[in-house]
Amino acid sequence: MTKSITKNAHPNKQPTASNPTTRSQPDMYARVTAKILTDLEQGNLSWRKPWHSEYMTGQVMRPLRWNAIPYSGINTLILWNAASERDFTSPYWMTFKQATEMKASVRKGEKGTQIVYADKFTKEEEDANGDLKSSQISFLKSYTVFNASQIEGLSDGFYQTPEPVTIHQQARDQKLEQFFAQTKADIYTGSQACYTQSTDRIQMPPFESFETAMRYYAVLAHEVCHWTKPPHRLNRDFGKKRYGDEGYSKEELVAELGACFLAADLGFEPQPEEHHAAYIQSWLQVLKDDKRLIFQTASYAQKAVEYLHRLQPT
């Protein structure tokens, strides 16, 4: 006997006039991964596109639901990419139904963006002894959202472009200094930027050696995301054996995505490091080998950033 119980059904996963079907789970993994692979093959990082778009300079933030709750994980990457490619300036996204409920309407001919919803359901089966055993099965559903820029009739707040965030080129930013200090990470000044797990310390070059304050904080955000990986924190282990192997590439991708998520939350630009070209080549290979990897690493990055936020005083 098999009994399936779906839990925590997402309010947006039911088909609507604009989204009559859902895609199969393998198709969603392949579709999103293929898009990111195409960008990487061209030397572009999908998740950094918003910062490279002139219309979004200095105002990149997390994509927001209709109720101002930020999207997370892989949906952040999907919506950043869509906004950059289609010049959307509003951070707000919603379903056709949600727009209608707010007495607004999606403009005729507008194409929505498919994002995903991950959840689990409980499956109960009888074992050889006739006893019921429960297991958690993960699943993905896709649904379609539209940017506020594609919708008419919303209140003015949905169309307002966020104010640019300005950080002085060389001065330390006290808000960011406080955020990183509150993590209680052991950060010391040295000759290179790295996190060493054996000593549980982060080494950073002198602040003055960076061209801009933003570059310093971008590198620090990357290293602090690495700092979340030990067993006594998030226990994230990809089986790294040596520099440049598959486990190393996966962990670097988590730190890269985590730095971008954190930069969007805190309002600064996650400027790329000089060796990203080498990372792109290693990421291309591991993403080609595993279509689920970008979903998994985005989830790990999200958890790392959430962990860092939890360390802040309430």
Automatic annotation (TrEMBL):
Compositionally biased region (Polar residues): 1-25
Pfam families: ArdcN, MPTase-PolyVal
Domain N-terminal: 27-146
Record region (Disordered): 1-26
Superkingdom classification of source: Bacteria
UniProt domain Polyvalent protein metallopeptidase: residue ranges: 175-299
A molecular-function term among this protein's GO annotations: single-stranded DNA binding
Protein name (database record): DUF1738 domain-containing protein
Record organism: Spirosoma arboris
